[in-house]
């Protein structure tokens, strides 16, 4: 469906943030020291929720990383953060400090105050520039990432024991699992566009040729079985309460493929429930 402008912006921001976190995780795979990694912890303090992008429990230190995938030019002025065009955004350093305070309090409360806490604001996008940046060692710019990693690798951490594991478990126990459906814009089955789209470029301009879906925009080919199973997963994700049956899938695929083919796949890959025209698959 066509998203409202604010939803579209929100979606793009989430996607960009997610890409940044993946970039960061890939980078962290180069760490040689032992550590427990907890990603996307959602904690609550005085009814305020805090999302911690990445938390590493090492020998004597808890590292907290706030990861930003900002692109292009930004500037700072009097402790405030702006895009190059002058639009003020939340200062990520404030966010970092607030989260750090919370982590300190939490460790104290759980009986782990002997751990040091180190917080870093990591900018992962190589195109990012911050004018008038403060000389703050908590900020790691893209050009400093490799050196930062080397520095981390020099801090010994090789004897993690039950105490570290228990801390990890206790943090997970206070983690407020987020309900992803709550953040979605409202949608209905009727309001969504039907039909296959390209797995690679998301174009709806698809032709069926010799049991393959061919994208008219990028030329990508997808086996019909793969495409159909992908569509079934979509329906299950978007409408968890909708029974999967031949008619539903025929409609969802915009009648591109025959009911006979759909039924054959459903029988092969899913378990039938019910009888006759009430038959559905799980
Ligand atoms: Zn395509």
TrEMBL record:
Residues 16-126 form the NERD domain. InterPro entries: NERD. Pfam families: NERD. It comes from the Bacteria. This is NERD domain-containing protein. It comes from Mesobacillus maritimus.
